[in-house]
Amino acid sequence: MSATPSLSRRGSAARTPGGSPRKAPMAQRTPMSTSTTKLMMATTPASAGAPAPLHASVSDIPLTPLDFSVMYAKIDNFMVTFNAFISGELAGTEMLREEHEVGMSLDREEIRSLRSDVEDAQKEQSELWEAIKSQKDADAAERADIGKLKSTQFSLGSRRSNLESELRELERLSESKRRQQDGKRQQLSMQRGRNGGELDRLSAISGINVRPTKVPNQLKISFNLLNPDDFAAESCFVLDLPTSDRSYHIVHCDPPLERARLEEIAGELSRTRDPYETMKRMRAEFKSMAEEARTRRRRMV
Questions:
Q1: Does the residue 120 lie in any domain?
Q2: Range scoring the smallest mean pLDDT among 208-212, 240-244, 257-261
């Protein structure tokens, strides 16, 4: 590559700016002078055997002109051809360079496109792996949930079987208790039919009447025949039957007694479980209160 510019410079030196071959100067095309030719012939030996004369005259030297025009023309023709070759080679090289640069640019664009495609493919592959991992985790969680559901289903099936057995047993016991209650209800109905008149006569004689209230688990116990001035006057109290705490409570009393006295009587009933003793105590309390009221009225009269 370093020799090409020098050749082109040499070629350019032999050509005119218009492109035509430059002619050599006149001094180069003029034949040598006569003296110079004679001097050269004097210094050249005439033959191998005869020594050259030491002092030759100018007239003895032959005057033969040297013509270099053909050589100059061939040199000019060579330089023109060589410069044309060099110019063609340079133009071809420039075209190849431009084609190479265009090809390199296209290759770089293609490489960038391939790199972008590779990055997109790697990104899509990463997203795909993430989606696969998420799907695997979801599948594992679903399988775990399915296992739990199957275990729960099995336990619920066992529990259901046990509950059905317990339900059948409860239905059997409930049916048995219902039959027993029906039997007792029939017996009580029959007993009430037989003892109804006797109970009415006992209530008329003793002045004691026991009946349930509208509130569940409560009994109203009333007394009359306590005041000789008015045997129809009624004294009563309401007894709350025990449910969960197994304790009796007196929730109402007419005429009223002291709260502490009522709690004492209810507490004794809860301990002894003897309602007849409680009824006797309450009748005694009402009897005492009726006597006191009767005495006060007599004093006022």
A1: no
A2: 240-244
Examine the pLDDT at 286 and tell me if it is beyond 70.
Answer: yes
b/e burial code for range 169-181 (CB count within 10 A of at least 16 → b)? eeeeeeeeeeeee
CA-nearest of 38, 36, 32, 33 to 57 is 38
The single-letter code of the amino acid at 252 is H
Strand runs labelled E in 40-174 = none
Domain termination residue (choose one: 206, 228, 250): 206
Do both 155 and 165 map to the same domain? yes
Cβ contacts of 90 within 8 Å, gap of 6 or more: 4, 8
In a domain, 215, yes or no: yes
Q: Summarize the confidence of residues 86-90 as an average pLDDT.
A: 92
Type and span of the H or E element at 237: strand 235-240
Residue 238 bridge partners (DSSP): 220, 252
Measure Cα distances from 114 to 5, 66, 124, 125, 135 in Å: 41, 72, 15, 16, 30
CB 52 within 8 A of CB 44: yes
Q: What is the pLDDT of residues 177-225, one digit of tens each?
A: 888 888 887 887 777 677 667 767 777 788 888 888 988 889 999 998 8
Residue 223, pLDDT score: 92
